[in-house]
Every structure is written in C-alpha cells, then in structure tokens.
C-alpha cells in the first residue's frame, strides 16, 4: 500500500530544507529490508554474550569521557527530535476530536515528522551500543535493558512503512524521555552526584510513557470495535499493545525493586 504524505502549509511543523527527503523511496526500502532489524537484534544478543565472556576475567573499563560524549550526543538528538515531532500533536489537540485525530488520522502529518520517524528507526540501531558500555564496564545487565532495545528496534522498523498515525505519540514520548534520560547519564558520567530523586522521576516518566502507549492502543481497539474509522493496521495495534503492556509491567517491577523494595530494606 502506497502512503501519500502531503505537507500542509498551515502546519506548525514546517520542514527544514534538510528534512525534505524522498519519503516513498524510504518506505519502499524499509518494506524490502525491514528484516534487517531481526538481523541487528540477533547480532546484538550474540555480541552481548561474546562481550561478557571476553570481560569475565578482565578489569572493567572506565570509559568516562567516551560515555559522556555518547550520552550528550543522544540527549541532543532526542531533544531535537521532540521539538520537531511534538508540535504536530499539539496542533491536533487544539482541534475538535483532536485526540482521536492524533491517534487515528494521518491528517496534518508532515515530511518533517516522517523524517524524524526514519531517524528514530535508525537511532534504535545506534542505541544498541548503549549495552557496550554496560558490558565493558562490567555492570549488571538486566533483562529489561536488552529486551527494551531489541523490541523497540523491531517495532520502529515494522511500523515505519505504514506511517502509523499513533507514531506521533510514540515518537514524541520516546524522544522526550530519552532527552532527559541521556542528559542524566551524561551528568553521571562526569562524576556529578545526581540526587536519587532524579532517577526516580525518570523511571516514573518511563512508566507514564508506557501507560500512555497502552492507552493509545486500547483506544484504537475500542474505536475500531464501534465502527469509528481509524487509519491503523491491525498488526500495528496488536504489536504496539503487547509491547507497551510488557514495558509497563517490566518498568513497574523495576521501579518497585529499585526504589520501593530497597527503601524498605534500608528502614529495617
């Protein structure tokens, strides 16, 4: 199915010159190569195990300067992505049936949003390198970490070709949280003692992100069930709901173990 994406002159998101790209060509390429995301994910998991074996009898690397530059770069990228994608949602929410349009309609989609959606898909490949710092510094690698990286990579590549309207929400939320999260990691890499409350806030925002992701997908199911038009593919809704629900459970469990359970132990 060929998706027609037209730039709306009245939109708040006027594309910059370097954001104007051949959208149909990018969709065609993704349709033909989206299985690359599975290859990247498999290689990622294999390299994790190989790296952990390599580091088993070695001293951990510090990598403070490199870690700082990496996190600063991703923070700047994520903040820029949020500033370029959120205005589209903001505009729609000021209109009648704004939330419904933001979830189910391609109205007001722009080439700028499409461009940052493509960048998001490729950035998920780059973000796999986050784990290299965990392995090389011999830090604990939890299931949530690598599961989140692989599943988001697969989801962003899978949904890009349909230009899912709900990606407005998924993109903006992800860019927003990552902007804060990577800035936090950059500060920690410098040795700055960041208050524990900041990490609590970040994890709380991540949980709210997952709740919103579940809400958007459940809303899509409900309106389709009552016969209201919603320009989303069944598979996109099903995969999105499964993914965000699993994140909500996993991040909630992480929050409990990291902040609530540990705090109760200290009080004993």
TrEMBL record:
Enzyme Commission designation: 2.3.1.199
UniProt keyword annotation of Membrane present: yes
Bilayer disposition of the protein: Multi-pass membrane protein
Domain of life from the UniProt record: Eukaryota
Enzyme class: transferase
Principal place of residence: membrane
Subcellular location per the Swiss-Prot or TrEMBL entry: Membrane
Keywords on record: Fatty acid biosynthesis, Fatty acid metabolism, Lipid biosynthesis, Lipid metabolism, Membrane, Transferase, Transmembrane, Transmembrane helix
Cellular component aspect of the GO annotation: endoplasmic reticulum membrane
Residue spans crossing the bilayer: 34-54, 66-86, 143-163, 169-187, 199-222, 237-256
GO biological process terms held by the UniProt record: fatty acid elongation, monounsaturated fatty acid; fatty acid elongation, polyunsaturated fatty acid; fatty acid elongation, saturated fatty acid; sphingolipid biosynthetic process; very long-chain fatty acid biosynthetic process
GO molecular function, one term: fatty acid elongase activity
UniProt keyword Ribonucleoprotein present: no
Chemical reaction(s) catalysed: a very-long-chain acyl-CoA + malonyl-CoA + H(+) = a very-long-chain 3-oxoacyl-CoA + CO2 + CoA
Protein family (similarity comment): Belongs to the ELO family.
UniProt-listed PANTHER family: ELONGATION OF VERY LONG CHAIN FATTY ACIDS PROTEIN 6, FATTY ACID ACYL TRANSFERASE-RELATED
Name of this protein: Elongation of very long chain fatty acids protein
Lineage of producing organism: Eukaryota, Metazoa, Ecdysozoa, Arthropoda, Hexapoda
């Amino acid at each position: 199915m060929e998706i027609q994406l037209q730039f709306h002159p009245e939109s708040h998101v006027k594309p910059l010159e370097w954001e104007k790209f051949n959208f149909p060509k990018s969709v065609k390429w993704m349709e033909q190569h989206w299985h690359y995301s599975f290859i990247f994910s498999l290689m990622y998991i294999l390299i994790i195990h190989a790296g952990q074996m390599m580091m088993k009898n070695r001293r951990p690397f510090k990598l403070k300067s490199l870690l700082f530059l990496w996190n600063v770069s991703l923070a700047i990228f994520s903040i820029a992505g949020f500033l370029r994608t959120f205005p589209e949602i903001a505009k729609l929410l000021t209109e009648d049936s704004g939330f419904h349009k933001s979830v189910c309609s391609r109205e007001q989609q722009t080439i700028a949003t499409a461009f940052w959606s493509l960048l998001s898909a490729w950035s998920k490949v780059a973000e796999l390198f986050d784990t290299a710092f965990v392995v090389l510094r011999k830090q604990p690698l939890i299931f949530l970490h690598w599961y989140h990286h692989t599943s988001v990579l697969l989801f962003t590549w899978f949904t890009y070709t349909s230009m899912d309207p709900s990606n407005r929400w998924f993109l903006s939320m992800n860019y927003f949280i990552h902007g804060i999260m990577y800035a936090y990691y950059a500060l920690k890499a410098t040795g700055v003692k960041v208050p524990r409350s900041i990490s609590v806030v970040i994890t709380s925002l991540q949980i709210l992100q997952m709740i919103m992701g579940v809400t958007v997908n459940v809303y899509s199911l409900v309106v389709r069930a009552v016969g209201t038009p919603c320009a989303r593919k069944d598979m996109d809704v099903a995969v999105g709901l499964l993914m965000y629900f699993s994140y909500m459970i996993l991040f909630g469990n992480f929050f409990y173990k990291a902040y609530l359970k540990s705090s109760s132990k200290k009080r004993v």
